[in-house]
Structures are given as C-alpha cells and as structure tokens.
Amino acid sequence: MTVPPPFSTGPGKATLNTRFHIDESWFDEAAQRNLQSYMDQLAEEYEVDLTVAQDPERLRDWIDPYTGRISRVDGVMYEFLEEIAAHPDFITERTSLIEAVFRALLTAANYPMTAIELADRIGRPAEMILRTLSGRQVYKGIRVYKAPEDA
Amino acid sequence: MATESAHSPTWWDESFEITPTDIEYLSNILLEREVPLSTDELAFLLVRYRLSMASGDLDQPDATPAKRYQPGSGYELGDRVTFTFMGNRVGQVVDSRAGDNDDYGSYQVVVVEFDNGDHQEFAAELEIDHALNVPEAAEQPSASPALSPEEIFIDHGGRIGELLESFLAGRDDLVQLGVRWFPKALMLDINERHLNLAEAILDISGGGPMSTAEIMEQVGILGDAQTELAEFSLNYGLKSDQRFDEVGPAGQVMWHLVRMQPADVKEPPGPLRYTALEFDHDVLTVELQRIESEIEDELTTHLLPRREDSIRVTLIYPHWRSGTLPLTPPLQLLFPTAEQSPRIHFTLVDAESEEEMEAWVVRHEGYIYGLRDWYAANEIPVGGYVTVQRGEDPGRVVIDFGRRGRSYREWLLTAKVSKDRIRFENEQHAVGSDYDDLMAIHVEEPDTLDSLAERLVQNRVALPQIVRDVVGELARLNPQGQVHAKTLYSAVNLVRRAPPGPIMAMLVEDPAFESVGGAYWRPTQN
Predict the structure, then answer these.
(1) E strands along B363-516, which residues?
(2) What is the C-alpha separation between B432 and B435, in angstroms, rounded?
(3) Among residues of chain A, what percentage have pLDDT more than 70?
(4) Please, what is the end-to-end C-alpha distance for chain A in angstroms?
C-alpha cells in the first residue's frame, strides 16, 4: 500500500490537516489484541470467511469507493474491504466515535486520513474527532501518522 | 501551487498551508511599519496577500485550468486535477500505469503529485460506477461570487492564525509577546538597571500583579520612546528574565515576581500529581462510560468543552486537600485564558458574601488554585458541590456551593489510617454544604492520609493493589458487600490520583471483582 507524507502543517499540535492511521506497533507496545484479531472478529460478525481469499499473498489494486484512491492490498485485506467494510451498516449513527473512526480507517485500507476526511466518512464533526484523537490516550492504536522518514 | 483555490471558502480550512514566501512577506511588513502586530492582524494581511496572489495567477493567459477528478475520466501526463474530497486540493499527473485488478474491468492508474511533494495513485478511465462520477451537467456551477478578505478572515481566521503562530514561533529574528510580534532588531535596549528597578517596584507591591504601564510610570524609564514600542520592549525584557512571570488573562499584560508566587502555583501540590496510566477504554460498560463522563475528571482525555454560564463540580480529595478546582474542558470556558502565560492571576468572588479571593489558573497542569481557606470556612466535604459562574468581566469568576443555612451532623463515610492501611467507617460529622452521596468522604487526619499516600508511592504499590484494598474496605461496610464505581473513584483518590477510566477498567478486567448490576461491584465471592 502506498502512503503519503503528512501535510506540512509545521511544528505544534495536531490540526485538522494532521493525518491519523491505525499504528499496528501500538498493539505490541500496549500488549493488546492485534489488528488482525479485530478484523477476524468483524469477519465473524459479518459471517465472512477471510481464509478463502484468492491468492492471499498477491498484492493487487483496491479502489477506494469514496475517493477513487488506489491502495495495494493483499488478498485477505481485499476480501475484508469488499465483503465487510463495504457493508452498509459497517458504520452507523449508533457506532461509538472511536469505533467509527477505527472502522473508517479500515474502510480505507488504513490509508492515513485527516479529521476532515474521517468526519466525511462517519458523519461526526471534524473538531470532535480531532479533540478525541489528539488526547494523551491512544484508542485502538489510532495515532498521528508519521511518514517513514519522520518516524 | 494551489493558489487558484484561495477564492474557495473550503480551501482555507482544508488545504491552506504557510509557505516561506508568506513569512518573508509578513516580516517585511513588520520592518516597514515599526509597530508590533498581533497574530490576527498578520493573519488578515496574509489573507489579503494570498487573494491578490491568486487573482494574479488567474490573470496569467497560459495558466492551465484544473480538471475536477472523476474516476471515470481520462487524464494525460501534465494534467492538473482538482480533488473535491480533499478540499479542492490541486495536483499534477506525473505518471500512469495499467490497472491491476480484473474485478474492476479495464482502467488506468494515474500518479498525482501535490505541491508538498506527496504522490498518490488514483483510478482513471474506470468503466464501472463510482460515487465520484457525476455527469458534467449535474455539477454545480463553478463560478461563485468572490469572497472578500474580511469574509474569509471571519470564517477561517482562527485556523490561519494558529498555523501562522506555529511558524512565526520558529523565527529567531522575531519576538512574540502575548499575541503580538515585532522584529528583534528594532527593539529598544532594556538593561539590567531597568529590570532591577522593575523588580523593586513589584517587590514592594506584594509581588504583583502590575501592568507594564504601571511599572513604567513608577520606574520612569524609556520616557522618550514611542509608548507602544517602549511598552513592548519592556515587556520583552521582563519576559526574558526568569525573575518575572506574565500572569495577565488574554489581552492584558500583567507582571508578577516568580519568587513571591504561591508554591502550589509554581508546582502542582502533591495530591494532584498524576502518573499517566494506559488502559483499554473499550472494556468499560455503557454504565461505567456514562459515569466517567458524568464525573468530568480533568485527567479524562475525551471531555469536550461546552459553553455554559454555570457549571457544578463535585470535589474529590486531591482538590479538596490542595484548595484547587479541576480545569476541565467545560470549566476552561468560565475561567480567564491566556495565549502563552502558563499561570494567570484572577479574582474569585463568593456568590453570597461577595468576598474576593486571589486565585490562579495553572493552565498546563490543569487546575485553579486559591480555595483552601474557602473550603474550610464553609465546611465543604470531599464530595461536596461547588458551582462556578461566569463573572461580569473575564478577570472575575463567581463561586458558590450547596448552601444549607447552617451545618448539620450527618452520617458520612469516614477515612482513617490504621496499621499503615486505609480504613473506612460510617460516622457522624458536621457538614456545611450539599454533596454527592456516592462521593462524600470525611477525612479524619489529612496529614496522616498524605503520609500513607507517600509511603505507597515509595513502596511502589501499584494502582491495581490500591483498588483491591479500597474495594475490600468499602465492601466491609455494606451488608451486600457492594461498592459503587463513583464511591470507589472518590476513595481511591484519597491515596492515589487517578481519573475514573483506569480505576473502572480494573473493576472490569480484574477477576477479583464481579458486577452485581448497574455501577455496583463487589469482591468475587468464590
């Protein structure tokens, strides 16, 4: 999957242009369940068998249905995006804010997104998302995205 | 450059970025005018500059109009493309390849370069349906009335100012004081004699606070210089000297001697000190999440500000003991704020007696200081209700409590220390204010309790062990052996500062506890 550098908003705190993503290393640091286990749980909830994905190792294009953006994903992620994340009730008004942001990032193949882009996908105010994600507490591994050269 | 989008209102909020050219332009203005300018004034000048730049670009006959991105359309190398879902950001097609997924049929992938060097891939010539494919005829007309600099500043000035400030702060040749900026090279010389005189004046005034104009008048310095520049220069001299602290609310510059500030303003009092705890917020039940929101502990990270003229706070021991109030996001809007000052001096006014109290907002550590005597005089217990009301001017805040006319003796949960452990009993005590039944605790000997808290830290007793001990003690007082989550939160905070989230997460995750419904828990029976 190709990922961009963050917008250059200069030094200082997170802004509406700061990108967030699910940092998989957080799960190791926090000794939490890993990202795959969350995806497996969602697969079970939607009764989708991810183990039958065709060519699970091979990377292929996935076109984001919101943006047309291309991500390179493996067969399991592709199956997840097409069969689970695309489900109409994957994010609803009743989904909690953190869960909705987490799922919105999954629907974009974990492509780093700003609070504004996330707000568009989950129908909550961008400022509320930014405040929630900018706090000291890290929820479900959602962190500010740092390009590899900044990390 | 995406300057052609500066006339679009969304562009300012979603895509505007500060460039070195912007900073150079603003630095030149400061040098030419020789007057300090505020961040807002500079932000407005920047909006005007960018709009004129954008208009200039549009006047260029060879400027290529950008195409609106649609996955069904085709794009050539060099094409400029506008992405509506990115706030009308504009990029240029720099490469392309064939699509690599038969599920989508035939399509191309174009690589788009943005003005920050970012490269992203997008689908093109896609034959299947996509939400972004809108027939040209159905599109809104692109020509919209041009927005004036004033209109843009009113709607987007906050964000522009915030970005601008973060960039100006990194400039060595500029000086920032409050919200205003000035070139260092043009500052008047403030020497050691000026600063020593200022210290003496503040010293004989009880340490402060005093305005810069008052200090200048009494010291009689810089009398010949232009007043605004002289005041700015003296402010800068005072700010650069560690003897002085700027303590005025936003928009007012007031000075105080650091050595004459209360110790609990310079450093957080012991009971408020907190070591951050990682926990899984998702494990909290809906009921526990509701209680967490209701408690509004300043250490809970996802509280949101709300504009109200009056907010009620339930005191917990760390604040009761320290004579402080929590500076939660909702309360922040009732107390004076400042652009930079970490400590702000202001006045608290008793709602009934109109007695005035000297108080401080300690912004970064998140508390209001100055209430110890007031709590004691009014017999407000741990768990008592305190109400904060907006005052008539920003430097005065009205404070009240659940008044009862006179104090009554009531049965209260009472905390004691025995054999180096915290113990609880139900005992009768005089109470002068209304309180939350679930959080009220009478503290027999605060000094002994604080010594116990210190020993627990020295002996590295972790929060889970404290939670177990406190649950065990509280359960002993109740025939059903049940403990409410709020009571536990209030009781744990007697010996270890912690927000409700991690305490309640331990209730859920520790097999030593079991739920008995609602917010009640008890030690596991078997």
Answers:
(1) 367-369, 385-390, 396-401, 403-418, 421-433, 442-443, 483-484, 513-515
(2) 9
(3) 85
(4) 17
Q: Kindly report, residue by residue over B116-140, the tens digit of the pLDDT.
A: 778 899 999 999 988 888 765 444 4
**B154's tokens:** 């009113």
User: Do B522 and B483 form a contact (C-beta atoms < 8 A)?
Assistant: yes
Angle between helices B227-239 and B212-219 (to 10 degrees): 100
* Average confidence score pLDDT of chain A: 81
What's the pLDDT band for B179 if we cut at 50, 70, 90? confident
Least confident residue range of B142-146, B197-201, B282-286: B142-146
The answer to whether B329 and B304 are in contact (CB under 8 A) is yes
Cα B202 to Cα B247: distance, rounded to the nearest angstrom: 13
Query: B160: which residues sit within 8 A by CB, 6+ positions away?
Result: B12, B16, B43, B46, B47, B153
Tens-place pLDDT, residues B383-411: 999 999 988 777 789 999 987 777 678 89
Question: Which residues of chain A neighbour B99 with C-beta distances below 8 Å?
Answer: 61
Give helix then strand counts, H and E, for chain A.
6, 5
Residue B58 has pLDDT above 50, yes or no: no
Give the pLDDT score at B143.
Answer: 47
How many CA atoms lie less than 13 Å away from B450 in the CB half-sphere?
Answer: 13
Buried b (16+ CB within 10 A) or exposed e, B150-171: eebbeebbebbbbbbbbbbeee
Q: Which residues contact B434 (CB under 8 A, 6 or more apart)?
A: B384, B385, B401, B402, B403, B404
For residue B68, which of B84, B86, B52 has the smallest C-alpha distance?
B84
The domain segmentation of chain B, as residue ranges, is: 3-62+146-175, 67-127, 187-261
| pLDDT tens digit sequence for B283-324 | 888 899 999 989 999 998 877 777 788 899 999 999 999 999
Instruction: Enter the CATH code of domain B187-261.
Output: 1.10.10.10
pLDDT at A6 over 80: no
**CB contact A90 to B (< 8 Å):** no
DSSP string, B100-136: --GGG-S-EEEEEEETTS-EEEEEES--S--TT---G
Q: Which sequence spans correspond to the domains of chain A?
A: 19-144
For chain B, say whether A140 makes contact (Cβ under 8 Å).
yes
Closest Cβ–Cβ partner in B18, B118, B120 for A10: B18
A6 and A146 Cβ atoms separated by less than 8 Å: yes
Considering only alpha carbons, which residue of chain A is nearest residue B112?
Answer: A69
pLDDT of residue B88: 64
pLDDT of residue B153: 83
Q: Give the pLDDT band of residue B144 (cuts 50, 70, 90).
A: low
* Contact residues on chain A for B116, CB-CB shorter than 8 A: 5, 7-8
Q: Best mutation site among A70, A78, A128 for testing chain B: the one with the most B CBs within 10 Å?
A: A70
CATH fold for domain B67-127 = SH3 type barrels. (2.30.30)
- End-to-end CA separation in angstroms for chain B: 69
pLDDT of residue A104: 94
CB within 8 Å: B132 and A68: yes
Q: Which of B345, B320, B373 is nearest to B205 (CA)?
A: B345
